[in-house]
């Protein structure tokens, strides 16, 4: 793995860790100016957030929700691009879960693009 790939993976691991630990404050130094986020919902294209503050506010809301439980299935990086495959649960019922993926881009140690997709 190249140094750039290692750095990208480390940023994505920290990003995902903020959701798993419900620590929205851990996101503060991970999101870059000009960040663009395409959320998983609503179908078919997902809501679009543009700019650091818009992305950060959205993600902090998700990370602070005690009702949502994220678990990474895999985190992979290649250069400035990375993928997080995840599972999301919102109750203890087996049916109350979904799986998804975020396709991310990191520039200068900050997340600048995130495209979210979810199994329907």
TrEMBL record:
Protein name: SnoaL-like domain-containing protein
Superkingdom per UniProt: Bacteria
Residues of the SnoaL-like domain: 13-113
């Amino acid at each position: 793995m190249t140094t750039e790939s290692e750095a990208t993976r480390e940023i994505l691991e920290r990003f995902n860790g903020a959701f798993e630990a419900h620590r929205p404050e851990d996101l503060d130094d991970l999101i870059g100016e000009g960040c663009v986020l395409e959320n998983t919902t609503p179908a078919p294209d997902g809501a679009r957030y543009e700019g650091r503050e818009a992305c950060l506010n959205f993600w902090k809301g998700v990370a602070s929700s005690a009702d949502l439980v994220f678990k990474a299935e895999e985190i992979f990086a290649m250069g400035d691009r990375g993928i997080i495959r995840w599972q999301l649960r919102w109750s203890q019922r087996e049916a109350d879960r979904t799986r998804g993926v975020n396709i991310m881009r990191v520039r200068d140690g900050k997340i600048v693009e995130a495209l979210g997709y979810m199994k329907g």
